[in-house]
Amino acid sequence: MEKKRKTVHGIVSVMSQMLSCIAVMMVVIGMLTGCKGKTSADLVVYGKIFTSDNNQVVEAFAVKDGKYVYVGDKAGAEAFVEEGKTEVVDYTGKGLVMPSCGNGHAHYTLGYAIQSVGTIISYDDSPEKFLKEIVPAAVKKAKDNGSKAIFGQGWNLMPFSKNMPTRQQLDAICSDIPIYFADEEGHKGLANTMMLVKAGIMKEDGTVLKKEIRGGEIGFGADGTPNGFLSEQAGTYTRSFLDNENLFSIDIAKATMKSVQEHLLSEGYTMYIDGYSTYFFNENIFKAAQQIDQAGDLHIVMGLTTELDSWMDMDKVLAQAGDAKKYASTRVKPNWLKIFVDGTVEPGTGFVEPLYPDGHQGVVLWSEEELTDITRKANEKGVTVHTHVMGNKGVNRIVSAYVNGGKDEMRNTLVHVHSVYPEDYKRMADHNIYVTEGMLWHHFSNDKQELLKAGYVPVGMETKSYPMKSFFDNGIVMSSHSDFPALSGSPDDPFGIMEVAVTGVYYPEQAKPWWPEELLTREQALQALTINVAKQMFIENERGSISTGKYADFLLVTKDVLTCPENEIHEAKPAATYFEGKKVFSM
Questions:
Q1: Do the Cβ atoms of 354 and 460 come closer than 8 Å?
Q2: How far apart are CA 338 and CA 104, in angstroms?
Q3: Distance between CA atoms of residues 257 and 277, nearest Å
Q4: What is the DSSP string of 34-71?
Q5: Residue 508 CA from chain centroid, whole number
Q6: DSSP code of residue 513
Q7: DSSP class of residue 90?
Q8: Residue 112 belongs to what H/E stretch?
Q9: In the 8-state DSSP scheme, what is residue 211?
Q10: In 3-state terms, what secondary structure has residue 180?
Q11: CB distance 53 to 547 below 8 Å
Q12: Rounded to an integer, what distance in angstroms lies between the CA atom of residue 238 and that of residue 259?
């Protein structure tokens, strides 16, 4: 009798389990088929949709609670539409729908901060205009506002090098407030005597206190005293003595963040790594991003970096970079340590081999042993190293440091990358080293092309610069960046950048294509602008492509950039930018 009861009980238990399984299957089937009354969507979009998942193009997707719940054909998406509850956007025949873009390295916070606290110099402004109009206006602005420092950025090294302003000329305009003006790349600076005195480089009477700053150069005049010109880390060091807390207070940081977000969304970016978040030597941009996110007003994913310069206390800065994780959230990612290996190749400070025509090799800031130590200590703290490097010799050195000191899973990254030894491509692929490349710089006007060929750069680099296709060919994850505001006469928006990457030409120049064997397909350019930025930011499982389960961050683009004429790609604009299923920008 007892055995019979157990048998009956077992049969009932099995039947109960089967019924439960059937119920679960019915729910799953209902979700997959979009059964009305069970899974109505908040938003359904129809059109030509580039997903960035294996270059797949689909007809429709559905969004619920900020995430994609269906991606596929139009018929499948229609099942998610509930009258009166689901917003339907039919973008068929109007352009392209695609994931929103990312910018793997730029300085928007700096660019917008300067507008608030400093002076912007046009790329075309002459040294004469700088001294006669720009500096006097900046001095008046500072004195009217009670500022304790005069700060600006934007002068162009090419015209300025022929008639470089001196500290004495700046003193003649203002000698009682420190002055610092960075060039458009941020790698050079001009300072008055008061600034150099405050930085401990000289005394007011001309006595020289420092002849060099590690990783940089202090310019000297014929009289043997500093002339006010500062290169690379000498400029960064000097800037650290500005009145930075007042220049970039938390209130200014919050206002700056809001302006940056508006700019990014208008161009179609919702992922962004800020390349120098401690530019003003404080953490106010970290605090601002966190507070804006907590208020529910952050509509981008913001990556933040702590910079370590060669003159700084390495262990102190590494500790600061690790501690910055206290600002982390779903949309704020303070996960990177920014360092410099060298300068830039075209002006002659990139670390290169062979030598420049005049026999020098560039500026290098760290030994391989130091870079290895930095990488090891940063990765142990869960911090990814984000390295500015241009010359092939510099690339070789930092790749060795990543290989010998880093953890492959940390996706340590090279930024800019002007030239690469062939053997280093394989090492980068084997050790999961990422690149964020200036695709926007893959062009030169005809006259600049001839200038390079005339011996302006090392032998072998006359018709080369920023590789792109080689990274794809070697299985290296490459994302796009704009380096704003250091654009060097190049576009900032994703589609202007995409056209340069595909054609090797920036449309206003009407020039010959630059280094055509390194050009990308349209699909590769879009990958670099979308999913590869997400990978760089460790968020590819959440964003970067149109895929079920991911956040619905996408663009409605005014042109189909997959099929329109190549020279019209730059005309494309975001008609609308969506973040987590909500429209956050529209034309």
A1: yes
A2: 13
A3: 11
A4: T-TTT---SEEEEEEEE-SSTT-EEEEEEEETTEEEEE
A5: 24
A6: P
A7: E
A8: helix 108-117
A9: S
A10: strand
A11: yes
A12: 28
Q: How many whole angstroms separate alpha carbon 573 and alpha carbon 462?
A: 34
Nearest to 514 by CA among 459, 448, 568, 420: 448
99 contacts 546 by C-beta, under 8 angstroms: yes
Residues near 13 by Cβ (< 8 Å), separated by ≥ 6?
none
In angstroms, the Cα distances linking 211 to 180, 193, 218 are 19, 15, 7
DSSP state of 348: T
The residue written with tokens 């229609």 in the block is: 78
Q: What φ, ψ does residue 175 adopt, rounded to 5°? A: -115, -5
**Beta strands per DSSP E along 167-215:** 179-183, 188-191
Q: Please report how the helices 284-294 and 250-267 are oriented relative to each other, as an axis angle in degrees rounded to 10.
A: 70
What single-letter DSSP state applies at residue 281?
S
Alpha carbon of residue 185 to chain centroid: 14
Q: Decide if 552 contacts 545 (C-beta within 8 A).
A: no
What is the token pair recorded at 563?
């099929």
303 near 274, Cβ under 8 Å? yes
- The rounded distance, in Å, linking the Cα atoms of 407 and 307 is 20
Within 10 angstroms of residue 164's Cβ, the number of other Cβ atoms is 17
Tens digit of each residue's pLDDT (9 = 90 or more) over 357-406:
999 999 899 999 999 999 999 999 999 999 999 999 999 999 999 999 99
Single-letter residue type at 308 = L
Q: Is the pLDDT of residue 92 over 50?
A: yes
Residue given tokens 């070697």 in the structure block: 474
Whether the per-residue pLDDT at 22 is higher than 70: the answer is no
Determine contact, residues 78/31, Cβ cutoff 8 Å. Answer: no
H/E run at residue 302: strand 301-308
Asked if pLDDT for residue 12 goes beyond 80, the answer is no
Q: Give the confidence band of 185 by pLDDT, cuts at 50, 70, 90.
A: confident
* Confidence at residue 5, expressed as pLDDT on a 0 to 100 scale: 41
pLDDT band at 346 (very low <50, low <70, confident <90, very high): confident
pLDDT in tens, 440-499: 999 999 999 998 888 889 999 999 999 999 999 999 999 999 999 888 889 999 999 999
In the sheet that 188-191 helps form, which strands lie side by side, from edge to edge? 119-120, 150-155, 179-183, 188-191, 226-232, 216-220
Residue 117 in this model has a pLDDT that exceeds 90:
no
Q: CA-to-CA distance for 176 and 149, rounded, in angstroms? A: 10
* Start-end of H helices in 248-308: 250-267, 284-294
Vertex 30: Cα angle to 27 and 33 (nearest 5): 150
Does the pTM exceed 0.85?
yes
DSSP of 367-394: -HHHHHHHHHHHHHTT-EEEEEE-SHHH
Amino acid at 136: P
- Extract the tokens encoding 395: 């690339």
pLDDT at 99 over 90: yes
> How far apart, in Å, are the Cα atoms of 527 and each of 101, 395, 425, 533, 580?
9, 23, 19, 8, 20
Give the β-pairing of 301-308 and 269-274.
Answer: parallel
Distance CA 465, CA 457 (A): 10
More confident position, 450 or 21: 450
Taking the CA of residue 123 as centre, how many other CA atoms within 13 Å lie in the half-sphere pointing to its CB? 9
